[in-house]
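Fold this complex.
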Amino acid sequence: MQNWYMLTLVGRDRPGIVAEVSRVLFDAGGNLGEASMARLGGNFTVMIMLQISSEKEEVENLLNPLADQLKLFVHVDKIIGDLHHHVDPNFRLSVHGADQAGIVAAVTGSLALLEFNILNLESDVGGTPEKPIYIMHIEGFADCSLSSLEKSLQPLISEKGIVVHLFPIDTMVG
Amino acid sequence: MVQLEILVYPDDRLRQVSQPVKAVDDKITGFIADLEETLSSQPGCVGIAAPQVGNFLRIIIVDVSSRPQHKNHGHLVLINPVITSKKGSSVGREGCLSVPDYTGKVNRSQFIEVKALNRFGSKVAFQMEGYEARAIQHEIDHLDGKLFIDNLVGNRNSLKKRNEL
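Structure:
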């Protein structure tokens, strides 16, 4: 029986981590599903869907030698591999401003009030160490109007002194 | 009229370059009716190209009229379409009948001029922008064996305003 797992790997970044991890998984009979890798603050981070007949402990044992060698934290969770049911976003937000604690909580809190489902969130800290800036992109789906989202976000724009651009996404299917 | 079967990636036939229509005869007119029927059977879909149903002729249909927020020219049947000029660019999200369960961002010209024959074989020309121009470019790509997934742009883009409409 094939099981689906979500692998979470975190460690100091260096070239070749994805190649080595995916080789070990392939050689063990694994098949990768969707994955998302990002370098966050110099750290290598990846979440990978793995389909394999092994039990959870066997997957952990498979990865442990590599984790020791590459100095990676590895976490394995059994999941439902619900492929082929993508939800398309209908709104996109770009947020930026002077870095400060609470931007994500404020923005996503406003979105959650309208049951906005975040499908993708990426953020970076740029600028200089003395004057860091925070930049965040969010895509998601909400069954509401653009103006209601704007209204919900408006108070925190002045409160936090951040810039929020909100755009509708109308996917062209041809 | 019949609903035609849609070719689905990675079917190699989607890579075939389609040939110009030599004469708009009854056979072509009948095929266009079938292609229209096929398009109308796909909810939310605003365009289709002949090679998507395995007929490798340069015929596309685009109809953005179901989305009146976008400037459009209504129901367009374009035979041997050619983009004669293009200007500007915009990134927008696209999907495709031939690539189920996936959408992605593609950079397209914001303004185009397109020349073609209509369903009666008469010369037509249109100036288009935005969403409708995107649909035309997507469908003409099919005529050249190209798919939107050949031209995806990454997620981490600049902060400049992108038109995803």
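Chain A has two domains: 3-79, 91-168.
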